[in-house]
Structures are given as structure tokens and as C-alpha cells.
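Quick entry between incubations.
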Amino acid sequence: MPQVPLRDYAYANTRVRAMSARLLDAQTFDSLLAAPDFNHFLSDLDDTEYGPYVEEAVIEGLRPTLIDRAFNRNLVDNFKKIRGFFEGRPYQLTQAILARWDLYNLKTILRGKQAFIANSEISRNMIPMGDFDEVLLEEIISQPDLRAAIDAIYMFTRERWIPYGRALLDNMGLYLHEHDLATLELPMDRLHYEKVSEVTKGSDSSSVKARRVIELEIDLINHVTLLRISGMSMDKERVKSYYLHGGTLNLDLFIHLAASHDEESLISALPSADPYKKVLQEAMEKFDEKGYSAFQDDMERYMIREAIKLNDDPLDIGVIINYMWRKYLEVTNLRIIMRGKSIGLIESQIRKEMIVIEEESAKKG
Amino acid sequence: MEQVHPTRSELLKRKANRALAEQGMNLLKRKRDALLREFMPIIDETMRLSLRLERVTADAQYELSMAKAKEGGPVIRSASFAASGEALVDITGTHVMGVPIPVIKKGTSSIRPLTKRGYSITGVSGRVDSIADKFEEIIDVIIESADIETRLRRLGEELRKTNRRVNALENIVIPDLSEQIKFINMSLEERAREDIFRLKKVKKALERKEMERLRRLSSGQL
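Done. Structure below.
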């Protein structure tokens, strides 16, 4: 039955609640974890929502990469379905939350073009969860070189709400001088977060919640970036170029913290009111063993926990945010089990890597 | 045994050849000992490097699998497109005991600062840095291994060649020459004895002829 897009959340949230009921429960995860090998893991997925996707993927082979793609297809279909429920402001907010996948897709195309990767390989790595559908992305991919791809991005984005092409053209001179793709990616990142922060501004509860999700994302990036650049002597302008506006960390503090000698002194220098300080202090204990993955893992866990807590009103976007993050978490955990099984990890090792959010926060609301 | 002419000049030639072969063998033995002295620490170094390579590869593969799991394979693949680059290698040459050996050194370390990996650090997670660090370390270890393994292989080949030569001289060439010298000596001695015997016979015949002539002279027949 064709869906008529709506401007309120009541109908969509009911549908999303039904979709939430299809999320895998702890028992299913236990049985997947107990699967003796990769093949058994795949057969156990047959009875879940992922069954048809996996079935389609295994025609090409049994490689984890193909199953990974099947999980992504499921994720894309689910998120696209949710976006299709809305129009107007709810659509705009959902679009803002999913827009990071547009940024990812465009950057992947630019990276692929610069490294002379085959078009088919670039296409395989697209995750069309955002505004740009497969057809549009294919059109950009089919351009003969990087310059043509940038022109195509400019053409397709000049009238969109995030004009990525403008940012690319404005920085083309620097790129031609330095031949470093980061000179194009950084302005795209900055523009992206500037625009999504702008579009999520508003005083209604849905806007506040969508804005909170974006803020969490920006905070994660800013904090992890600081940790990654700590100890490098960089001039102020360079440090400023890594700062993303829209988070809880202000630019002056960001510049001040960037001068820290190492990760430990940076974490100590964070204001005690900074909610991430405790998370990072705990992650620091695992830094020697896991490197920057330790910070990334713990910050992501915090971000997901905070995002799924936003589910406190049945009539706003909180229900959607809760579902989106729980679904994302589910796919991440499935991938962890799948990769773990494929490299022969035992159950306890896989459990250690999984991202588990307390059941209470997940179901809240 | 090859065809040998039992002459004095041949004997002198063979003796000179044997002396040369013995000198060569001693030199080769000294070379073999020197090569062995070079070879043994290289074996230890090769073992150390292959263990290190095994460890860093296992670590990197684990990190890669987990990053692909947590971020999704496409995200990691996308970062790898940006981070693709080249590893510069300097190849020069040296000699160890006269053996030409290529020296492979990394031009610059493959471990790049995270601001030089081609992606924006704000757009790629910290996990990618951890994997990139590990895989760049693998490249460095591979270059070190390539240098030490080439050295090991070249020295090993030379050692085997030298050993084969020493064995050939010690067990074939020198015994053969000694055998030939012995044969020539025996032949020459035999010939000398024959000569003495023949000369004695000639002498006796001459004496007999003289006696006959003197007897005829005294009997007045001449």
C-alpha cells in the first residue's frame, strides 16, 4: 500500500514501534553467539529479518564482505522506509540525522577517483542511506576523473541544503597545490556539520532531540580529534581547521586543549563539567592495548546510550532516533559476531568486543 | 683416472697443480668460516624479524576485522582508498667476503603522521588510525625482512657454493692429483730400473766383446 507522507509523528511512531519489535532480542543474540562457526551463524539468521538479504548475498559467495553488504542493505531499506513516512519538518530532521551518509558517499567517490579505483568497486562501497539515491551516486561515480566528479557534485548539490560542491570548488586551489584529499574533505566535514546544526535548530522537542544527536556526533568527533592531534605541534590556524562547530566544546577551549603534550594530559585538562571526561578517563586505561580505538569505542558507546535515551515522548522524533540507533547497534553487533566467527574467535572474545547497551536504556519509553 | 703421461714435466706440473689446489682449498675453508660467522647472526635476525612480522600481522588483521565489524567494511575500504600511497625503498649494494649483496633500506618510514594519510581526521574514526599505524608498521617490517632475507639467501648460496668447492678440492681434485703424482713417480722409477738393467746388459755385452777381441789378439788370429 503506498504510504502518504505525514507531517506528524503519531502514525510513523506506531509503525516504527512495530519495526522495533522486529529487532533481535538477547536470546537470538545468544544463539547467534553460540553458533559453532560462520556457516551456522548464517543459517541462524534465516529466520530473522536479515534472512532474505543474506540469502541474496550468498549467491555471490560466503565472504564476510558480502554478508556485511547484506546487513547494510537491510539498514538502508529500514531507514529509507522511515524517511518515507514523513514530509515537512519531520522529514527535514530525519534527513539531517541521515545526512552523514551522503557525506560518506561523496568522500568515498572522491577517494576512489583519486586512487583510480574501478567504478564498480566504488559503487560497491556506497551506503545510500541519505538524500542521494543510487542513481545520483552512480552518475557521479561514472565521471571519468576526480575533477569531473567534483564538477558533477557541484552541479547536483548547488541547489540542495548542503552545497558540498561549493566547498569543493572553493578549496580546489589548495588541493591542486598540496595534492592532499584532506584539503577537500575537511571543508566538506565543516560545511556538513554547520548545515545539519543549522537545520536542526528549533525549540520543539523533536528539533531539540535531533539537535542533540548531531551535538553528540560533533562532540565525539571533536574530542577524538583532539586526542589524535595531541602531542603534534600545530599552528593555531591548523588546529582551528579541525574544529567542528555545533558541539558542546567551544573553539577557544579546543585550541587550548590541542596544545596538550599527550592524551593523558589532555583528558586531565578537560573541564570537570565535560560529560566526556569520565568516559575518556576510563578509555585511557585501555589506550596502551587498543590505541585510539579505545577512545572511539567508549565515546560511541556513550553517544549511542545518550541517543537511545531520547525516547521519552511517543509523539516526537525520539522514537525514531531510538529505533535508528538500536538498529545500527544491532547491525554492528551482528557484524562483530560475523567477523569474530570468520576469524575463529571464541564466544567470550566476541562478547568482549560487542557493544552492549543496558536493556533499560534501550527500551526506555 | 684421466690419461696421464708419466714424464718428469707432467710430474712437475701435477705437483704444482696439487700445491695450488691445496692453497685454494685452505683459502676457501677460511672463506667458508668467515661466511659462517656472518651467516649465523643473520639467521637470528631473520628469525626475530619473522616473529615480529607474524605478531604485527596478526595484531593488524585482528584490528582490521574488528574495525570492519564496528564501522562496516565499506567505511574502512573507503578510508583505504584515501590512504593508498607508495613505500619508498632505497636499494644499494655491498660485498661480504666478495659476495655482492643488495642493501634494501626504507627511503622514508612508511609510518605516516595521521595528518598525511589523505583523509580528513574529522571524517574518519580513530580506529582507522590504529589500523593504519599497524599496517604501516607491517610495511616497515617487510622492507627490513626483505633486506635481511636477501642477505641470508645470497650468503647461504655462497656458503653452499664454497662448501661444494672445498669438498670437490678435498675429496676429488687433490686425491686425484696425488694419485696421478704417485702413478707418475712409480712409472718413472720403473723406467729408471729398466734403464739400469738394460745398461748393465749393454755393459756386459761390451765387456764380452772386449774379452773376445783380446783373446783373439793373444792367440794371433788378428
